[in-house]
Amino acid sequence: MTSYLIRTSYDLSSPLNRSDQILIPAALWTALDQEHGQSQGQGPMFVDVDSAGFVGRLRPAMPSDGLPDDCCRLPEWMNLRLGLVIDETWICLSPCQIPKAGHLILRAHHEASLLGLEDPAASLTAELSGSTGLSWACLSIGSVLPLSCGSFDVIDILSEEGQSVSAACILDCDVNLEFVPALDHVESESESKEEDVPSASQPMTAFVPFSGRGQRLGRS
Asked: What pairs with residue 9 in β-bridges?
């Protein structure tokens, strides 16, 4: 059941602007829920967003949200990924199923974001699981996570079976978090002299300062 809605944006100050959640009309959410969602014990409802290569989680609008019946509301990072800078553009939302994540490879935009954290894996786990705000239920390769501790690119996702996937659910699963060098990382002289240094396109073999940290993410 593909839905076509007019895209609008969350207020930049809204906590939902730093989430994976797409606000849709309550009536549409009910219809989708009856066909795909939580009423059938399937957990959150995920949708492919405008065939743009990433997935979002649906959230029903409340009367206080003031959402028109033909509109949806997206966080800023989704709008940027869609390349849309003007509201009131039609987009399509298509329900989809995604596997559980088993391994995430992230890259900080600023190395200071990691160096300033006593335990980066634990801090990222807390943010994604909602301990410090809204939880995330799904991640997609190529997306930017606008977390309070900094921005992180999703470089790669492996399913619980170890297969590379474009998107995955991170709720109620043990996920290993890895970090490749930050965007602004500057190689030291010793690093530059090392032979056979893996390229940035091979994050599984790149320099990983915090590896193999299994963390339980989220709750349904």
From this structure: 74
Is 139 in contact with 154 (CB distance < 8 Å)? yes
Q: Residue 13: what residue type?
A: S
Give the residue, 193 or 124, on which the prediction is more confident: 124
Extents of the domains making up the chain: 3-96, 101-217
Identity of the amino acid at 130: G
Listed in sequence order, the residues at least 6 apart from 14 whose beta carbon sits closer than 8 Å to its beta carbon are none
12-45 residue pLDDT tens: 899 999 999 999 999 999 999 888 655 555 678 9
Q: Which residues contact 2 (CB under 8 A, 6 or more apart)?
A: 92, 93, 94, 95
156: confidence class by pLDDT, cuts 50, 70, 90 = very high
* 167-169 and 138-140 strand pairing: antiparallel
Rg (CA), the chain: 18
Which structure tokens are listed for 30? 């009910």
Q: Which two tokens stand for residue 128?
A: 């994604």
- Cβ atoms of 8 and 65 within 8 Å: the answer is no
Architecture per CATH, 3-96? Beta Barrel (2.40)
| Amino acid in the structure at residue 73 | R
In the Cβ-directed half-sphere of 108, how many Cα atoms lie within 13 Å? 25
SS3 176: strand
Helices (H), the chain: 26-36, 76-82, 111-115, 120-128, 189-193
Q: How far, rounded to the nearest angstrom, does the alpha carbon of residue 209 sit from its chain's CA centroid?
A: 22
Instruction: Name the pTM for this structure.
Output: 0.82
